[in-house]
Amino acid sequence: MTLAVHTPYTVPIGFMDALQVTLLVLVAAGATAVVLIRRHVQQVLVLSIYGVLLAVLFFAFQAPDVTLSELTVGAVALPVILLLTLAKIRKREE
């Protein structure tokens, strides 16, 4: 049996390949959804979900430092900033 990583917690290569391909397809679908959604608030929420998907993808590719950065910036900070900006713009329009 061939193993993906030589650690006490080993995972078969076939499983990791399937997981990574599945995550890549989900990330591609998430990016497409972000682009196709036209309502601003919903687009920001989908962008946050997309950030979480990217973080999971980075974790599957064994990059925990990039995972933490993506969770902080892509899934939390950027959506919060965009939602606050949208709220401020709506206040000015009223």
Task: Describe how the helices and strands are arranged.
Layout: H1 13-36, H2 40-60, H3 64-93
Record keyword descriptors for this entry.
94 residues, mainly alpha, 3 helices
Describe the structure in your own words.
Helix content is 80%, strand content 0%. It has one domain. The chain is mainly alpha-helical and 94 residues long.
Quick overview:
It is built from three helices and no strands.
Task: Summarize the main sheet.
Answer: none
What is the general shape? elongated
Overall mean confidence score, pLDDT: 89
- The percent of residues in helical segments reads over 70%
Helix count equals: 3
The fraction of residues in strands falls at: under 5%
Give me the count of strands.
Answer: 0
